[in-house]
Design goal:
The structure is a homodimer of 117-residue chains.
Chain A lengths: L2 H16 L5 H8 L3 H8 L8 H10 L4 H7 L5 H9 L1 H11 L4 H13 L3
Helix pairs in contact in A: 2-3, 2-4, 4-5
The first copy, chain A, binds a DNA duplex (30 and 30 nucleotides) through helix 2 and helix 3.
Chain lengths: 117, 117
DNA sequence: TGTAGTGTGTAGTATATAGTATACACTAGA
DNA sequence: TCTAGTGTATACTATATACTACACACTACA
């Protein structure tokens, strides 16, 4: 059920192969939570942590923050803020893109970034 | 502070000019909450209601749901679900569009909708 | 002048969120 | 053999979220 927890555990264990500083205790220590709490999170015994904690964890595990938030069922609050400033526009855009293939969205991102328009 | 509450009160009072069924009590009754709670919401005495309640309220007051959620500091959970399915893609797109003028975003929406690409 | 409807004050509640603190049993290395 | 480090079990907590239930004072109108 908790793909978030599984992902964290697997990612941490993978890093640990190369670097002994990726134990539950040490990661927890670096990101400022109790080891017992991280342990429970990894085993899905409790819900995923808060956005702030997830982002610190993602950084420590060298994983993309937005991807990790998504696994936790969340959307970064700064993205939400962008949407909230122009709700009608962004709601329409996002709903329109909902069923578009990845390549279509990628193309859009490029178009906007390259400013070719 | 509570622009949400003010907005609800003003919208409801405006409708009431034409239709006496837009009293606090009757609106509350239709959307399934206590009148005292709606009263407190309108006066900003409590935080905005849940997403579900806001959407029922928006419908009753004939207002856009996404706009009303935005005033409450929320983003519709169905939009969040779209983002969570492809977090990297959508995060990049939205951050890229953050500082673009409205007309640029509108143009993009049209482009996608008209399928001219 | 009653009564139907109005908004609001007060008090309380259930559930979720986001953790902490401590102690325990186990293992690998010096 | 001891000790430093490992993961985890247990018990608890503070704060936020999202309301309900009831009572009260006031007003319009028939």
């Amino acid at each position: 059920m908790s793909s978030f927890g599984e992902f964290v555990r697997e990612t941490r264990e993978a890093l640990r192969q190369q670097d002994s500083r990726y134990s539950v205790r040490q990661v927890a220590g670096r990101i400022g939570i109790q080891p017992s709490y991280l342990s429970k999170v990894e085993r899905g015994e409790v819900a995923p942590p808060s956005e702030e904690t997830i982002l610190r964890l993602a950084e420590d595990l060298k994983v993309d923050g937005d991807a990790m938030l998504a696994l936790a069922g969340k959307v970064s609050s700064d993205l939400q803020a962008v949407i909230r400033k122009r709700p009608l526009l962004f709601a329409e855009l996002i709903r329109e893109l909902k069923d578009m293939p990845d390549r279509a969205v990628v193309r859009l991102v490029r178009e906007v970034r390259d400013g070719s328009w």
